[in-house]
Amino acid sequence: MIDAAASNGARMASSVETTLAEVEIVAQSRAAQIGEAVLAAGRSAVGSVPQGLTAEAFSAAGTRLRAGLGVVGEDVVGDYVQGSRAAGTAKPTSDIDFAIRVSPERFDELIALRFGTPNPGSAKERTMLHAIKTGKIHVGEAGLRGLRGSLEAELGMEVDLSVIRVGGPFDNPPYIEVPR
To answer: What are the Polymerase nucleotidyl transferase domain coordinates in residue numbering (predicted)?
Structure first.
């Protein structure tokens, strides 16, 4: 009787684990779908040029951005401006936020490329774990400081430039697609 109960318990635990794994897969897929729907909604809700820029300046920034991304720019979902300049709520002193959106798989590749295998407990490991948790690789860790400086000089304002995982916590509208 005890053996039968233990066997039933083991089967139930295995079934619960399988169900949880299936739910996680569905949730990840749904998160990506929601992210794309939110992107589409955000894109249609705002203008085509970020607040405080001319169309010409935005186009030139897009050209410079794509030319300077290097390996980070391979296999991107899209390049966008997000935040207050996309929403039209920026102050004159506000920065401009460029988001390089990549798939979750590409994000993982970039994490491995940019961070390698940091020493356990090191600042680099903590930074890597934070990037994974937030779905955002900051400009320095992405190796894009020089590009940020060029964009700041060209646009005359501070620039935030990050690699963003599609469906991650920082993948939020409104968005304005950077011109090609």
So the answer is: 80-160
Strand partners, 165: 102
Rounded Cα distance, 91 and 141, in Å: 28
Query: Helices (DSSP H) in the chain: which residue ranges?
Result: 2-45, 55-68, 84-87, 104-115, 123-134, 145-155
| pTM for this predicted structure | 0.73
> Hey, is 121 helix, strand or coil?
coil
- Identify the three-state secondary structure at position 130: helix
Domains contained in the chain, number: 1
pLDDT digits (tens, 9 = 90+) for 31-60: 555 545 444 444 434 589 999 999 999 999
SS (H, E, C) 1-50: CHHHHHHHHHHHHHHHHHHHHHHHHHHHHHHHHHHHHHHHHHHHHCCCCC
Nearest of 35, 76, 62, 56 to residue 177 by alpha carbon: 62
